[in-house]
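Chain A, query sequence.
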Amino acid sequence: MKSSRNASTIRDVARLAGVSVATISRYLNNSAPLSADTAERVQTAMTELDFTPHPAARSLASNKTYAIGLVLNDIGGEFYTPLLRGIESITSAEGYDLLIHSTRNNQPAKTALSKAIKRRPLSENNTDGLLIFINAVDEAELMRLKKINFPVVLIHQSSPKGLDIPMVTIENQSGGQQVVDHFIEEHGCKRIVFVQGPPDNEDSKAREKGYLLSLKNHGLPYDPELVIEGGFESAQAYAAVLGLIKRGQSFDAIFTGDDDNAIGVIQAVNESGKRIPEDVAVAGFDDSLFARILTPPLTTVRAPNELVGAEATRQLVNLIRGESTPLSTVLPVEIIIRRSCGCKSPS
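Chain A, predicted structure.
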């Protein structure tokens, strides 16, 4: 028998009911609906443990949901799988639920964040902090969250000036420069195409800076006709490369903004009658799982997306706890050589 009525804790109830602490908190505070089965298991566990929350404890629980919100453009595509795996590894270890809102790229970029937060499950009343990974952020909404000291960490997106919101990203510029350096120095390429991502995407802009810096360092002229929009979509990249070929532009290498673009690029080059890598060298970015099984296997830049997700979430948990965290975390990348650039794959 329990020595006192409140000897059991909210964590004991969560463990016995087979749910998270966040679920117990929402049950006690009626802050979000639960299924009938979940509610019954929670109530049964509370009864079995003789658990009755003290009013002060209940008030405390209302200010801590043990839930983290994630706002991102999309959840489809190979890119997001390791990122979500990294995020979940930390939320699970720290006892947080993860609530996801996808804008699906179908909302105006500047209003996507505020619309996501106005949805009740992701508001500051129902989450302890937010991870934000969208192409363009709503500065007014971020300023509002900053003023109320609500924890936020940005992923692959810089903080607006003056707000000092922590961000986690990768060495995009360095990765882009390494690819173009390799094309020029190892394969003698001189007419190199860059396939951009979405217009507001900071990763794509940084990779393009690396592309331009490499051209400059090697004394090669910049031709704006060789920079085309791919939107991180294989179909868009396919159409863009076909358009380049139809306009009669000559090129001997293509650096794609990400590996999804590379699928469309390879298809377009093959349909044009050109050979990869004999006529056109190709490289991507991210090192997605499918990169190694493309024909030919894709030279690419390995981005530590799982580590990005884990590090961003770890920093957010630290902020929730009132601890300090760095304003900028930039994780290293690595070029992975395969046959699409003209090299023999390392054994």
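Residues 1-6 have pLDDT under 50 and may be disordered. The longest strand covers residues 67-72.
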